User: Fold this.
Amino acid sequence: MPSAPRCCCSTSIPAAGTLALEGGTSADPELASALADLRLRRVAIGWITDLAHGDARAVRARLRASGLDPAGQDAFFVRRYPRESKQERRRAIGTTHCVLAIAGDGREDFDDLYQHLRDPAAAAPLETMLGDGWFLIPNPLD
Assistant:
């Protein structure tokens, strides 16, 4: 029996706010290719968004049209209730998947601590994760 796929999580939310539900669906072709390669290696891709459940269909359509999730099969985690943090959704993913890496366009995509810092230097120990499990990338959808 083949082993269960592992998980590589990526966010599709801009650091300045939530993803626009309308507009273009251009995506970095190198990112789309890298995601396709991961899927061939049986690595599951998960997307986390701060948008609510009612917006899931529109976000999925944008991911599909952009080529980032052409088959519409990636795991997708929307905000389940008001004020649910990304940290809670990351923990939920960890109950069913072994998270290998997280890609995001802002540090708060990796740990909610970044949203509460008065002194950014206090997060210095977390910075060692950048490039070693945490990957800063441009917003996947423009």
